[in-house]
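pipeline stage [seq->struct] | target=Glycosyltransferase RgtA/B/C/D-like domain-containing protein | organism=Bradyrhizobium macuxiense | residues=501
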Amino acid sequence: MRFTSLVVELIRARPRLVVWIVVLAQAAIWLFLPVIFYGSPPGDLATVLAFGREYQVGTAMGPPLSFWLADIAFRAAGNHVFGVYLLAQVCEVATFIAFYHLARAIVGGPQAVLAVLLSMTVVVFSSPSVEFGPLILARPLWALLLLHSWQLIGQNRRSAWFAWSIDCGLLLLTTPAAIGMILLVAVFAVTSARGRRTLMAVDPLYALLVIIVLALPYLIWLVRADALTLPPLPVIADLKARALRWGVVLGGLIVAMGAIVLLVILNSRWFTRDSDDAPIIHRPPVGPLGQQFVYFFAFAPAIVGSFVSGLFNVDRVFGGAGVALLMSGLAVVVAAGDLIHLRRQRLLRTVWALAVAAPAALALAVALFLPWTSTTEAKTSLPAVAIGHFFDDSYQRRTNQRLRAVAGDPEIASLIAMAGRRPHLLLDATPERTPWLSIAKFDETGGVVVWRARDTAGTPPPEIGQRFPGLVPEVPRSFDRLVNGRQGVLRIGWAIVRPKG
């Protein structure tokens, strides 16, 4: 007698409901985990907020859209980082919902659910969804761009041209990899007969006009900043090292797909005898164009992105792993055929849940248990709010003015710039990255210079003393981390630069 679980029946009857349930559950985990267990934002999120408050058209960190949205979300939440965490999860939900609609248009609703479940194990594992920035914002825009591209090429829906142009324009305002992503779409369109017919109309000209209008302010900034040049190409002697870097980045992407490989192996006929009694998820046949579309965008972004990373010696795949591996789940589903047997359902569910929950468990372990087993500091363990309020209040008591700027150690200064009254951030070691504030202007308006204290006197590091001569260090301030463990307290040295006049 064939047994079909409730999950399988839901996939068959209510595929959209299943997608919403798993996507919202995953978003809830990554929303509340940092709120409860993070004392400071992960990654470069504090720097993203410091750049976002300046509302620059362009900066050294790239196009401005993600920084603006981060600042808006932060202010909307009452100057609390919860708003940015929520924005990051909104992007994740939008990514998988758009991806589901794309997969449903190609393989139907039930198998589209399987594609979403498989891609979740890759995207969630390969790149954290909490560190909002260009890489996170690019994911839903890439998913929407692929969806509207398929509607144009595969379904011949001319009404999708306007949405497609909006996707391209917003991508150009989000990530430097946008040009490469758009070129991939153009390459597929030019190399397919249906795509060439789609381009032989007046609609692409209107779409190009919309894209130029959206991206024009940033393009003007690129011209004025003389930032349109590519990074220098490697010399012949460095080609071997760059090729090795390409292999390392590409290998990392392959490792990130380990959960998909494991699920495919466990679902094969090798591990069950009654494979004919397994429930089946069927789909209508996928045409050659659909197969070409899926395979092209499953492999091309990963190969091209890793090659660019190797060429210019970048540590991560160009454009982000969430973009490069988004279509991997759909590629596996298309390759599996029109009928997919779900064998050993309980084991598959367990492995899938572990693959999705593993990154969250790892983040929790780093926050709570790493301080007890290692002297390596977890970046999320610093008490950002306490640090920011202390220096903001101390400066105001000493000068009877609010704190306007902060400089020194980039990590601590970014946390101070995020908390309190949000002073301007000056990266004094690389002042060209913060063009809204110079060292001369900092000396004139005043501010706080901070560093990690190495002694009880709070002597500033030599490089900071050279950039700010005449600093009079205050008594170092100690702060408890979220979990001190074997690391002891955090001691911050600081000095006040009083405003002139």
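stage status: PASS
auto-comment: Residues 379-497 form one domain. The chain is about 60% helix and 5% strand.
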